[in-house]
Amino acid sequence: MTPIGKFINYFEKIDGAVILLSNISIMLMLILISADTLGRYLFNQPIAGTYEFVTMYLFAGIVFLCLSNGLKEKSHIRVNVFVDRLPCNIKKIVLMASDLIMLVFFAALLYVSWQMTYEAFVTREYYYGAVSFPLFPAYSVVPVGSLFMMVRILISMFSSEDEKAGVT
1 vs 149, which has greater pLDDT? Predict the structure, then answer.
């Protein structure tokens, strides 16, 4: 197996663990919101900080940690009406341009979100509400998700162009 093949296999294993974290976030969100709702209506005692924890930690994890898998499974929204009508050579160019635009976008997002995460860590930024908690772990899922998305885009860019364009 080539070094690139080994890297892709290793990346797939790590990406699988990241997807597992995203799935755990969904389950935790379901449990917390259900428990908070039951506590609020049955016992007039909601769970303090549930809303903040769910919106700042779990929701960010759900969104950003599964981006890469969405690209792998081709489940992101795409408008194929125009692209599907193009000749194969032009279709390949459009798909490569699309990959490059996504790569630049996620590189910029990685850069900015890493700066925010680092600053929140260094300054010990906290959310102060019913329950106080540090914000850098919540911020960190954005650069992690962006990095995984960039790697997935690069894998997609260098995969078989005929396979990407739907050409057999």
Answer: 149
A 10 A CB-CB count for 100 gives 12
pLDDT band for position 17 (cuts 50, 70, 90) = very high
Query: Domain tally for the chain?
Result: 1
User: Sign of the CA dihedral 104, 159, 148, 70?
Assistant: positive
The residue whose two tokens read 């890469």 is 68
Q: Which residue in 75, 73, 66 sits closest to 16, CA to CA?
A: 66
* Phi, psi of 77, deg, nearest 5: -70, 130
Mean pLDDT of 105-127: 96
pTM of the full predicted structure? 0.83
58 touches 135 (CB < 8 A): no
168 CB contacts (<8 Å, ≥6 apart)? 162
Packing angle of the helix pair 136-157, 88-122 (nearest 10 deg): 160
Of 68, 89, 81, 94, the closest CA to residue 146 belongs to: 68
Query: What domain range is 135 assigned to?
Result: 3-165
| Separation between Cα atoms, residue 143 and residue 7, nearest integer Å | 20
Query: Could you identify the residue written with the tokens 């910029």?
Result: 108
Residue 120 has pLDDT above 70, yes or no: yes
pLDDT band (50, 70, 90) for residue 162: very low
